[in-house]
Amino acid sequence: MKPLAKAFNALGYKPVPGAEKYQFIKTGVGNRETGSIKIDILTGPKKSFDGSRVKTDDRRAQPRPRVGIHAHPLDEALTLNEGLRKVVIDGNLSTGETWQGEVFLPHPYTFLMMKIFAFRDRLEDKDREFGRYHAIDMYSIVATITEDEWEGAKELSKRYAEDDYIKEAGSLVSTYFSSFTSLGIIRLRESPYYTPEFRIEEFISALQEIFPHK
Length: 214
Hints:
Order of helices and strands: HEEEEEEEEEHHHHHH
Radius of gyration: 19 Å
Strand order of the largest sheet: 1-2-3
Largest sheet: 3 strands, antiparallel
Helix content: 25-40%
Structural class: alpha+beta
Shape: globular
């Protein structure tokens, strides 16, 4: 993570107060919040670091030796290493040199797990728009999922069906995303990005299929 810490500093990212080691923001033109870019350093469950040199608690997964930044562990992201999608990135560095590298994107099912729990954490937080942006992110994930990814999501749902976090996700979907009057759907429709063309019924059905309530 040391190169990442150096990159944040070189590119002008500043720590977010209260989360200085794992959230960073770069403001827009004129130092305005509009157009800003925020980066959260997140990782998987704390238990995935058992037996390693990484020190973990509910807020941090801290490498040893320390490098000035750490990740925030998400126990609900238990499928983080499942169905990763490799993306090749290439281009020119600021030095003019050509460069190519690989990044691995989590499966949409993993993203949905993260967003479901994030919505739960923010639905009463007026400073975080009452979770509206998490609800719109959930819709975007479902709306753009490919057929192969959908089949993979159903397989992951079955494979981890007895995990407590998967069960809780099913309960949260049932509570907040099961009808037009559910709070999650209300928050989604309150979003400035919502349009009447959104296919809400299909969104609800899709969530309930891969996050069934037991």
